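Q: Entry one of two.
A:
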Amino acid sequence: MQARTAIEGGADAAAAGPKRRLRMAPKLAYRNLFHDKVSLFVTLIGIVFSVVLLSFQSGIYLGIERTIAAVLDQTKGELWVVPIGTKSVDDPSLLPGREKYTVLSVPGVENVETLSMGFARWRKQHGGATTVLVVGSDWNAGGLKPWNVIDGSVDQLAAPKMVAVDRTYFKDLDVKGLGDPAEINGMTVKVGAITNKIRSFTTMPYIFTTLGRAQIMLGAAQEQGSYALVSLKPDADVAKVQETIQARLPDAEVLTRESFRNRSINYWLFHTAAGSGLIAGTALAIIVGIVIVAQTLYASTKDHLNEFATLRALGASAGYIIQVILLQALFSAIVGYALGMTLTLGIFKLAENTTLNVVMTPGLAGLLFATTIAMCMFAAISAIFKVIRIDPAGVFSR
C-alpha cells in the first residue's frame, strides 16, 4: 500500500511541473525512509554510533589540547626560556641557573619569573605513594599561580608546608579537604587550597606551591628553575629580543609562548601512541558510519527498484530520483545527529568530575553536524549509482 502511494506520489510529481516535483521529493523520501522501520532503525544506530564516537574523539582531542596547554595559557609573558630538548611543558628538567639575571639585562625585557616544575613522590597519609608534578612560582611577582580555586585561597599557600591540590585527584592523593597532611619527597605538607578541573595530560596531579618550597622539594638550587617566563616592554620587538636572549643563553632554548604551546601539543598528539590512537578512533568512526549508512540506503533503494523504475517510465528524471535518495540521506543524518548529540552530551556530563577532560563547543558541534551530513551524502552514492542504471522499460516486462 505504501509502495503504491509512493508510486502515485511520484507519478503526480513526474507529471507536474518543476515546482511540484520539488515539493513532492521530500514527501516521497520521507515515505521511503519510514516504510521499513527496521532498516531505518539500523541506519540510525549506525549514525548515532558514528556521531557519539566522533564527538567523543573530537572532545577528547580538544580536552587534551587544553589540558596540555593549561599551564602555558595561564601564564603571562611573550617568551619562555626552556632547557634544550624540552618536548613539552609537562616534560620538565632544570636549567643551569641564573638565567633570570642574564635575561633581565637584555634591552626590551620588562620582567622575568622563574617557574620550577618537576616530578616528585607523594606519600599518602594512610600508606602508599604516587607520582605528582610539583609546580612552584612566585605569583606575587607575576609568576604562575593556581587557578579555579574553590576552597581555601592562594594566599594561604604562603604559610609553611602549604600546597594546592585539585579536587579531581582527591582519591589518588588520599585527601578529602583542607588541612589533610601528606609528604612530598620527604617534606611534610598540608592542603592549603583546592582547585577544580586542573588536570594533567600525563594523569599525574599538579601540586602548586611557592617557588622556594618547590625548589627544596625538587632538589634545585635557590636560583635554579625549570623555565624562565619573560615579559617584554610594550614597544619591544619580540623576534629581536628572542634572538638576543638566545645568543646570551646558548645552553637553553628561547621560544615564544605560542611555539612552545604548539610543540607541547604536537609532541603528545603526533609523536606518542596516545595521539595515534585518537586519530585511528576518529577514522574508524567515519568509516563505520559511511559503511552502515551506505549499506542501508543501498538495501532500501534495491527494495524500491521497481517503484523507481515505474517513476522513470512515467517521466521522472534521474535528477529527481537522485534528489529523493539524497533527501533520505539528509533526513537520516538530521535524526541520527540529534539522537547522537543528545547521548554525547549525557556522556560528557558524567565525565565532568573525572580525570578525563572532554570538551564540546558550539563550533565543534556545528562541524560534527556538517560531517554527519557529508558522511550520509557520501554513503548515498552507492544507492544513486544503482538507480541511474535502471532501465525504465524494465517495468513493462514484469
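Q: Entry two of two.
A:
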Amino acid sequence: MKLEDDGNCFVCGKNNPYGLKLSFSVIEGKITSEFTPSAFHQGYTNITHGGVITALLDEAMIQAALNCGLSPVTAAIDVRFRKPLLSGQRSHIEAEIVKQGRRLIQAKARLTSFGDGDLIAEAYAKLLIK
C-alpha cells in the first residue's frame, strides 16, 4: 500500500473542513504543536474527548517519524490520561522518536497545559515503517 497525503488528515490536513489543521514544528529535536479545544471537541461538558487527545498524540509521533524521512503507520498506541483538557485550555504537544529499527519505530508524545506545564496525557507508540 502506498501512503499518500491528500491534505485531508483530520489532525494536520489543511484541506479538511472538519479537521484540526494543526501545524507542527521542530524545536530542540522534538516535534511540537499547540492545540486549544472548543466545545466541538468535547465528550463530557467542557472536557475534551479522549479520542481527540489520542489523535493529537498519534499524529505528533507520526510527524516525528516523517521528520526523519520515514513513512510510518501506527501499529500500537498506549495513551495514559493524567488530567482533563478543558474546552478553551491552550495545550502544548511534543513528540520524539525513542528507538528506530529496520521496520519498527518506538515513539513517545506528551500533551501539557500551556501555562503551567501540567501533564494532561502521554503516549507511547510502535510505528511500522511502510
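A: Comment on entry two: The chain is about 15% helix and 40% strand. The mean pLDDT is 95.
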